[in-house]
Amino acid sequence: MIKLTNTQTTILANAAQRETGSIYPLxxxxxxxxxxxxxxxxxxxxxxxEKNGDYTINANGFKAIGLxxxxxxxxxxxxxxxxxxxxKEGATLxxxxxxxSWQKHSVRGAISTLKTKGHTIVSSRDSDGxxxxxxxxxxxx
Length: 141
Known about the structure:
Blueprint: H1 6-17, H2 32-44, E1 48-51, E2 54-57, H3 59-64, H4 77-86, E3 91-92, H5 93-100, H6 104-116, E4 121-125, E5 131-135
Antiparallel strand pairs: 1-2, 3-5, 4-5
C-alpha cells in the first residue's frame, strides 16, 4: 500500500480532475514555505512529472490515489502560451485568449504562474493600446 499524506492526496486528486493534469493551483493550505518540499516529495515518489516549469500528475500518481490514468492532451495550454509569447513579435492578450479558449483573467493568471516558475515574460502596450506579451530570452551562455 502506498502511503500518502493528506496534502499529497489532495494535490494528486485535484490534479487528476484537471484537463491538463497540472497540480496548480495548489490548495490554500499549502504556503510558500512548504510548497517546494511537497513538490519534491511527489517528484521523488515519481507521482508527478515536470515539463516547462509545470508539474503534472502521471500514471503512478493516478495509481497512488486509486484511479486509472486517462489520456491527456499532448500540449498544455501553458505550452501554447509559451510558444506564442516566444515569437519575436510576442502575442497579444486577445491572441492568447483565442488560442487557449480562456478568458483574459485566466490568461493573465497563467502568465503570472509562468513568471513564478522562472520565465521572464514582458508586458507592453502596442501603439493601438492592446496588451502584448513577449518571452525574454536568456542571453547567458
